[in-house]
Every structure is written in C-alpha cells, then in structure tokens.
Design the sequence.
C-alpha cells in the first residue's frame, strides 16, 4: 500500500493524529489559530507542540498539492470525455447532412431549391471543419475579410449533381 506524507507517523499518538486529521479537514488556508477556534477537545495545549513536532504544515501542503493534482486530472478526464462525445456528435451530424444532400439529389430537380442544397453543403463543410478544429466562418484580419479553409472533402458526385442542376436551371 502506498504511503503518503499525511499518513499517520509511527511515533504519532492517537490523539495527535486525530487532531492532525481534524486540522487537515479545515482545508486550504488553515492555521493553528483556526483549529483552536473550531475545536476544543482538551488537546489545544498540545496543538503547537504537535504542529511543529509532526510537521503539520508540510504534511498539509503535500496533501493539498495531491488533492489539487487529482482535481486537475479528474477535470482533464471529464474534458476529454466531453470532447470525444462532441466529436462523435459532430461526425454523426455531418454524416446525416451528407445523407440528406444525397437524398435531395435523388429527388425531382424541380422539388429541390439551390438554396437548400447550398445550405446543406455549407452545413456539412462547417461540421467537417469543426471536427478538424478549423475555423468555420469568415475571419477579419486587419480590416480585410479572409476565408480560412484548408482541406474540405465533399463527395464529388454531389458537386457534379449540383453543378448539373444549376446549369439545367440556368439554361431553362
């Protein structure tokens, strides 16, 4: 079993260790005066002796650091879990948007507006960019708009079908 600085020391009496545990439970910002104010268990005269003899300050600092580190690790686990869930959700949304685009392309061209197709493609592209942690909007740098798009994959059949649909409508 792993031992820690704040564990009971071999030469520490039951009363001294009990008082230390009570002191430790006061949390960050604790001091011997706080302890004396909160607890009057008959050991108050020994508190100063035990505080120095059993290195309460150093043991408490080690405990506080341990607890803080565990909190950070737990928080990192939670954030990673949330990030994975968000990524899975975005991927599902992108797949649904791509499916909807394909479904629209299989419909009668008169029933599908260019606007609907373009909005779905835009949504699909934005979802893909979010999955890649890339910007999804136009950003402005020193007063000039700049679209930041690196690699976007859109099914070539969809692009061909949209091009064909737009061309057919333009001809008519």
Sequence:
């Amino acid at each position: 079993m792993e031992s820690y600085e704040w564990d009971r020391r071999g030469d520490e009496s039951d009363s001294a260790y009990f008082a230390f545990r009570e002191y430790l439970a006061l949390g960050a910002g604790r001091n011997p005066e706080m302890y004396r104010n909160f607890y009057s268990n008959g050991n108050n005269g020994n508190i100063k002796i035990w505080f120095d003899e059993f290195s309460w300050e150093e043991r408490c600092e080690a405990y506080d650091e341990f607890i803080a580190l565990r909190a950070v690790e737990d928080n990192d686990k939670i954030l990673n879990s949330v990030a994975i869930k968000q990524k899975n959700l975005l991927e599902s949304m992108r797949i649904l948007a791509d499916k909807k685009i394909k479904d629209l392309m299989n419909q009668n061209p008169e029933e599908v507006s260019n606007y609907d197709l373009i909005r779905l493609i835009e949504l699909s592209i934005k979802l893909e960019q979010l999955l890649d942690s890339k910007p999804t909007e136009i950003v402005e740098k020193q007063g000039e708009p700049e679209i930041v798009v690196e690699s976007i994959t859109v099914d070539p059949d969809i692009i061909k079908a949209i091009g064909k649909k737009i061309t057919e409508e333009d001809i008519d």
